[in-house]
Design brief:
The complex is a heterodimer. Chain A is α/β, with parallel strands linked by helices. Chain A is built from 11 helices and 8 strands. Chain A has a single domain, classed as 3-Layer(aba) Sandwich (Rossmann fold). In chain A, about 35% of the residues lie in helices and about 15% in strands. In chain A, β5 (about 180-185), α7 (about 190-200) and β6 (about 205-210) form a beta-alpha-beta unit. In chain A, α2 (about 35-50) crosses α7, α4 packs across α5 (about 115-125) and α5 (about 115-125) packs across α6. Chain A is globular and about 65 Å long. Chain B has a single domain (about 5-65), classed as 2-Layer Sandwich (Alpha-Beta Plaits). Chain B has 2 helices and 4 strands, in the order βαββαβ. Chain B has helices at about 25, 55; strands at about 10-15, 35, 40, 65. Chain B is globular. The chains are: A alpha/beta, B alpha+beta. The complex binds thiamine diphosphate and iron/sulfur cluster (3 copies). The site of one iron/sulfur cluster (SF4) has 12 residues of chain A, from α8.
Chain lengths: ~280, ~70
């Protein structure tokens, strides 16, 4: 990453002009009415503007899924790869071009089910990249099958009588696997999400941000939520508490809720740097 | 400043991009917007505080509020 670019503070226009980061003529996007993925994308673009990164410094990599369609809309270097394999491609890009800011956008299914193995080992290596997990508790693209984040008891096209599986906590999994920046945001808390993504972009090492967003068409409809707004209210607004408030709240207001904010941050040797050291050592530099 | 002289914001809706999800309507703190058929429309511009939340939460790049 170019550190010189990271300190520059650009003036942000109100309303924000997204068009400079979007490929021309691609809107409207394919996402359904009320799908949270567009809200997440907008928070990401504002965070990128604040980071001072230039478009050419960024490589956005995705797998397959509705969320993984994101790179098709943005004017960065982009790679739309295989289901579950975004992190492997991203690792290749980062090793070949360590100066590149690599941002991975991935669904909960893409990252944690088929891509779960790549997810834990990417975190373990602490390779410098930002991984945004668009966590809508469902496989959106393929018609609403349950994923590792579908809450127990809730409905999907493959759990018609209620899901009997326990969930993965994406953030705990990332932390336990060795990610050095772990955070959670939501599409409802848009400004907070922008700040969290900005911090994740500044971090050196593997940054994982789980973003709760909604698939009104499958998860919402199958779980009797009437609208995208109702889902945002129930899951994102009322289903989470900020790490900054959690100590001040009575236990009953915290119970059963997911924490939002930066949940873990540490410094640990970064993979590309260690790899370069190895090259230097072996080649006698 | 008198009421008449009060400068109103300008809310620009791109009807071709609006998918009618109603998120902006439901979360506007001062109830400025409404659904009119399949797309959003402004119903009470005077109440707009320029908070930008409608734009920030619109998934479709369809609404903007200019000062
Ligand atoms: C190897 C392989 N297996 C299965 C699929 C089918 N498939 C496409 S997208 C998808 C799941 C997408 O869900 P998620 O990653 O949660 O993203 P969302 O669509 O919800 O944003 C699946 C199973 C595929 N494309 N490739
Ligand atoms: S199917 Fe769900 S995740 Fe996919 S675009 Fe539609 S609402 Fe979004
Ligand atoms: S700027 Fe704020 S007050 Fe004005 S319409 Fe949008 S959400 Fe409502
Ligand atoms: S949030 Fe956007 S797409 Fe949804 S109704 Fe409002 S302007 Fe239209």
């Amino acid at each position: 990453m170019s550190t010189a670019a990271a300190v520059k503070k650009p003036k942000i226009s109100v309303p924000f002009d997204y068009s400079k980061y979007l490929r021309k003529g691609k809107l409207p996007h394919i996402w359904c009415p009320g799908c949270g993925h567009g809200i997440v994308l907008k928070s990401l673009l504002r965070a990128i503007e604040k980071s001072g990164l230039s478009k050419d410094d960024i490589c956005m990599v995705s797998g397959i899924g509705c969320s993984s369609r994101t790179p098709g809309y943005v004017d960065f270097n982009t790679l739309h790869t295989l289901h579950g394999r975004a992190l492997s491609y991203a690792t290749g890009v980062k090793l070949a071009k360590p100066e590149m800011k690599v941002i991975v956008v991935t669904g909960d299914g893409d990252a944690l089910a088929i891509g779960g193995n790549h997810f834990i080992h990417t975190c373990r290596r602490n390779i410098d990249m930002t991984i945004l997990v668009y966590s809508n508790a469902i496989y959106g693209m393929t018609g609403g099958q349950f994923s590792p984040t579908t809450p127990s008891g809730s409905y999907s096209t493959t759990s018609r009588y209620g899901n009997i599986e326990p969930v993965f906590d994406c953030c705990e999994l990332a932390k336990a696997s060795g990610a050095t920046f772990v955070a959670r945001g939501t599409a409802y808390h848009v400004q907070e999400l922008e700040r969290i993504i900005l911090e994740s972009l500044k971090h050196k090492g593997t940054s994982v941000v789980e973003i709760l967003d909604s698939c009104p068409v499958y998860y919402g409809r199958l779980n009797k939520m009437k609208s995208a707004s109702q889902m945002m209210e129930l899951i994102e607004k009322n289903g989470t508490v900020s790490v900054k408030q959690v100590d001040k709240l009575p236990p009953e207001k915290v119970q059963g809720k997911l924490l939002r904010g930066i949940l873990h941050k540490e410094d640990r040797p970064e993979y590309c740097e260690e790899y370069q050291k190895l090259i230097d050592r072996v080649s006698g530099k | 400043m008198t009421e008449a002289a009060k400068k109103l914001p300008r809310i620009v809706i791109q009807e071709k991009l609006c998918k009618g999800c109603s998120i902006c309507v439901d979360f506007c703190p001062t109830n400025v917007l409404e659904m009119r058929g399949p797309v959003v429309a402004v119903k009470n511009l005077e109440a707009c505080t320029r908070c930008q939340l409608c734009d920030l939460r619109c998934p479709d790049f369809a609404i903007q509020v200019f000062d």
